[in-house]
Specification:
By secondary structure, this protein is an alpha/beta fold. Helices cover 19% and strands 27% of the residues. The chain is built from 14 helices and 31 strands. It has an eight-stranded parallel β-barrel with strand order 1-2-3-4-5-6-8-9, surrounded by five helices. It has a five-stranded mixed β-sheet with strand order 27-10-31-30-28, with no helix packed on it. α10 (216-231) links the parallel β5 and β6. α12 runs parallel beside α13 (326-337). Bound molecules: ligand 9MR. Ligand 9MR binds at residues 79-80, 122-123, 163, 208, 241, 271, 309. Residues 79-80, 122-123, 163, 208, 241, 271, 309 line the site of ligand 9MR.
Length: 702
């Protein structure tokens, strides 16, 4: 689960992923697309990157062209269709037709889009370049940015807000109508206007001949980005066009990418083509990007040589007949080699090895299935966890219920307890601008879809960023706890009556500030998915950083919820996608055993869960079903008798055997409530149509 302030990363995560299967250090691992072949897009995805191309609307009808496009690329830049001469040929008269053609192609093929470009001295109609009055030009520029960005709002991953504003061989801006009439401040003004027009889009500065670190032009752009970052001018990314000669990238390209990234912007290779397409030159370019974690994607400037703006140079990855060239193979294998190394969660620093926890025996009950007509196996305290899992999924059971003040697109991150004859479900709801939470209750899964969803922002929990709830009854205090994330803290509310949604107290933080070990390791990640579990002596608070770390803090049972301290790394993976988020820890009923499950991002960018066990909440953790091919739960071991409505098995929660702070589950007839989504959905992360479904274990031996 991610937050409001994390749109950029989340949007990216829609198309990316990382495979445990691909995680062999240094090995060339080919990752198949759905048809079984490795492609540029599937090879880039495991390291969290996209692979894109420039597209001409006029070529979409060419089936050779569109077949390669849809097979290989998951990011599209309209080559000319979003430029000023195309979109506003005369003042105030906008034409988005050809651009919309590309946008709809992308939407129907699961591709994301780079918007190119809003403010550029070239391909600029003469009615703009002839303006001499600053007030007029300012209003024209801002209106152009706002109108175009509003038209495409929610559909653009990154915008090239300003293109090629620096002079060749110089640290200074080039001469242009914008520079000459508005002065140096036009770039800043364009970015500020762009942020206001579509706060969810990444805003990039894009240029050529800025790849060599020591070049004056590179230094000029670097100084501008540094200045923007220091003054809070909104800029998220820098595009390096990378139109190279036969030699490929300059030796200092890697330095350039990492130096820009260190300013706190993403970097992208936006218009790659290399004269004669030498395989090594392409491989070196790809390597330069892979070496920089904030290099988020590569776009080539056209598909076949015949499509290129410099076609006589034969600079692209496919020949004019649409056949992959040696450079294509070099890119595929370079991407495959760069997919990182495998690791499993390490033991935390704690050496505690046994638990004295003796959970209360839970009342057995027979849970109705999703249809409500038959009973799933009755939980038993005598079974054991299997070493492999098989699940059968329900169809969609719970969908969002937008109302007048909650324009929500998805429902996510469910927490569930069965108490007093009812399931009580808490979940995040998301719209394009952020998160809140809902509560619903029902007696049977067949009633879940029609249950009223109560928006908890009406309770003292209040409005604002509250997400990823976890509910349990804290028996020592006879109080229900709702634990959730609030961006800069792990927070909780309490309630004497779980069925009274208005009874929750206002949020309180577990921590005074982010623990140092988290701030030291979080990198570009986010602090998410807080999870409390207690044994007979202590309570533990787990959280993830989307950067490869699972953290654990602790306090005593008697002090809870105060005194959360001793934060340690409970588990870690060098590749964040192998240990991403949505961690749950449960006590296995009748055993001196705990189960840890953590959500991972698969080779196809889809979510799945890995699992480990331990005899103590503080580790160490031993892999149980921890690979993409044999996961705890994922595409590899879930069947969909009612139709495969999702390929993601994402953030959810086990149906527990009880409801208290010990989070006890039966190892038999397990059920897991999860979030999934239409595999063809593609939009900004918070607008994705997440729905809830229920997995029921189909290989239970007890
Ligand atoms: O590839 C584009 C070509 O079809 C146009 O005729 C040309 C017009 O200037 O623009 C080409 O794309 C350019 C891109 O928009 C900005 N960077 C340089 C690219 C190659 O000229």
């Amino acid at each position: 689960m991610k937050g409001l302030h994390r749109l950029g990363r989340r949007r990216r995560a829609v198309v990316i992923g990382l495979s445990a299967a691909a995680a062999v250090a240094g090995a060339v691992t080919l990752l198949p697309n759905s048809a079984g072949a490795a492609t540029l897009g599937t090879q880039a995805a495991p390291s969290g990157r996209y692979f894109g191309t420039a597209v001409a609307a006029g070529r979409l009808g060419d089936s050779t062209y569109s077949t390669i496009l849809d097979r290989e690329f998951n990011m599209i830049t309209p080559e000319n269709e979003m430029k000023w001469d195309a979109t506003e040929p005369s003042r105030g008269s906008f034409n988005f037709g050809p651009a919309d053609q590309i946008v709809s192609h992308a939407a129907s093929h699961g591709q994301q889009l780079r918007g190119h470009t809003l403010v550029w001295h070239s391909q600029l109609p003469t009615w703009v370049s002839g303006i001499t009055d600053a007030a007029t030009l300012r209003s024209v520029m801002n209106n152009h940015i706002t109108t175009a960005m509003t038209h495409f709002k929610g559909k653009i991953h990154s915008w090239d807000v300003v293109n090629e504003a620096f002079a060749d061989g110089s640290t200074q801006h080039r001469s242009s109508v914008f520079q000459n009439v508005l002065g140096d401040g036009f770039i800043e003004e364009a970015f500020r206007t762009a942020r206001a027009a579509d706060p969810a889009a990444k805003l990039c500065y894009n240029d050529y001949n800025i790849e060599n670190w020591t070049d004056a032009k590179t230094q000029g752009v670097y100084a501008m980005v540094r200045d923007f970052k220091s003054r809070g001018v909104p800029i998220d990314c820098v595009g390096f066009q990378s139109h190279f000669g036969t030699g490929g990238p300059p030796a200092g390209f890697g330095t350039t990418l990492s130096n820009f990234a260190a300013l706190g912007v993403d970097v992208q290779i936006t218009e790659l083509d290399i004269a004669t397409a030498p395989p090594t030159a392409y491989a070196n370019t790809v390597k330069a990007c892979l070496n920089v974690s904030r290099c988020t994607g590569i776009t080539v400037w056209g598909i076949r040589d015949s499509d290129s703006w410099r076609s006589t140079d034969n600079p692209l990855l496919f020949d004019s007949g649409g056949n992959p060239k040696p450079a294509y193979d070099a890119v595929i294998s370079t991407l495959g080699a760069g997919t990182g190394s495998s690791a499993s969660p390490s033991a935390g620093p704690s050496t505690s090895s046994s638990s004295t926890d003796q959970p209360r025996t839970k009342t057995r009950r027979v849970r109705p299935t999703a249809s409500g007509t038959t009973a799933s196996p009755s939980p038993s305290a005598s079974g054991s966890l299997p070493s492999t899992f098989q699940w059968s999924s329900s169809g969609v059971l719970i969908a969002p219920k937008p109302d007048a003040s909650h324009n929500v697109a998805g429902i996510k991150d469910p927490s569930v307890v069965y108490y007093n004859g009812k399931y009580h479900v808490f979940a995040s709801v998301a719209d394009s601008s952020g998160y809140s939470m809902v509560y619903l209750s029902f007696t049977d899964w067949s009633q879940a879809g029609s249950a009223t969803q109560y928006y908890l922002d009406q309770s003292p929990i209040g409005r604002g960023y509250r997400a990823a709830p976890q509910v349990f009854y804290f028996a020592p205090q006879k109080l229900w706890y709702l634990v959730y994330q609030t961006g800069d803290n792990a927070s909780y509310s309490t309630n004497a009556d779980i069925s009274n949604p208005n009874g929750w107290s206002a949020p309180k933080g577990f921590y005074s500030s982010m623990p140092t070990i988290i701030s030291q390791n979080i990198g570009n990640g986010y602090w998410v998915d807080m999870w409390v579990i207690c044994d007979s002596a202590n309570c533990y608070l787990f959280s993830s950083d989307d950067n490869g770390q699972l953290y654990r803090s602790q306090t005593t049972l008697s002090q809870f919820p105060n005194g959360m301290t001793n934060t340690v790394i409970a588990a870690q993976d060098a590749n964040r996608n192998n240990l991403f988020e949505a961690a749950n820890v449960y006590k296995v009923q009748g055993k001196n055993q705990y189960l840890l499950i953590v959500e991972a991002i698969g080779s196809d960018g889809r979510r799945y869960f890995r699992s480990w066990t331990s005899n103590s909440i503080d580790g160490s953790w031993t892999a149980l079903a921890a690979s993409e091919s044999s996961p705890f739960a994922g595409a590899a071991n879930v069947t969909f008798p009612a139709g495969a409505w999702t390929r993601d098995i994402s953030h959810g929660e086990m149906i527990r055997a009880g409801y208290d702070q010990t989070l006890t589950i039966s190892p038999c007839g397990m059920q897991y409530l999860y979030q999934g989504r239409d595999p063809n959905s593609s939009t900004d992360y918070n607008s994705l149509p997440w729905r809830l479904g229920l997995l029921t274990q189909s290989n239970s031996a007890c």
